[in-house]
Amino acid sequence: VRPDAFPKAFDEAIRLAKLDIDAITAQSDDATFDNTFLRLEDSARALNRLNALYGVHTSNLNVGPMADVEAVVEPKLAAYADELTQNEKLFARIETVYKSDQFKVLSTAKQRLVEKRYKEFVRRGAKLTADNKAKLSKINTRLATLFTNFSQNVLAEEQGHVTWIEKEVDLIGLPKSVVAGMAAAAKDRHRPGQWAITNTRSSMDPFLTYSSNRQLRAKVWTNYYSRGDNGDKHDNNAIISEILKLRAERALLL
Fold first, then answer.
1. What is the pTM of this model?
2. Digit-coded pLDDT (tens) for 60-74
């Protein structure tokens, strides 16, 4: 997988997904479970597969160009999600099945799917006026960018803060496996002969669990729980404030 290929790949996958939805809404037959809900479940296969690959890279492999990729892709996904739930023809078919007599004779599992889909669409704005749908889309697009900025700031804080140990006496209490991992992390950062506690949970937790050095434990804990709260270029406080404001506006709309 080449991360820089994600944006164009998403453009194509979203295009194909829209064709699937168009095929559902273009049907002249009355809406049924089979011709609406089953087809909706089977739609957007390329997009779903791409999302799975993308999710791995935005979590476990979020390095190199992925920050820039996320900044481009997340607004695209937010816009597509709104376009889907605000599709009046599609929602009309969903609502028809949900409120029809055929719903009553569906199996429990099918009723659950119909009810779940219907409520998802309503809760995401399917019944809003056109003006409010536009407002909601604007909020969702902005939130997608803010959420990405927030997570990228946290990631930068994890990568940028390292607690260094230079004296072997400060390793008291730590198992050999933990010490070896810290030594390898230091070597990777071109400081052989020292030990590095990176600002990640996988590095922090073992140190807090086993270290006998209370002062160092406090330093490691503070570094980790201060991510995005250091008043620097990766500070998240302004982002959090805007997120809360927009989510409050969205809640009122919905």
1. 0.82
2. 887 788 889 999 999
- Give the whole-angstrom CA distance, residue 172 versus residue 152: 34
Please state, in angstroms and rounded to a whole number, the distance separating the CA atoms of residues 83 and 64.
31
Alpha-carbon gap, residue 215 to 235, rounded angstroms: 25
pLDDT tens digit string along 167-206?
A: 999 999 999 999 999 999 999 999 999 999 999 999 999 9
CA torsion sign, 193 to 198 to 203 to 204? positive
Do 248 and 139 touch, CB atoms closer than 8 A? no
> Rounded to whole angstroms, how far apart are CA atoms 103 and 96?
9
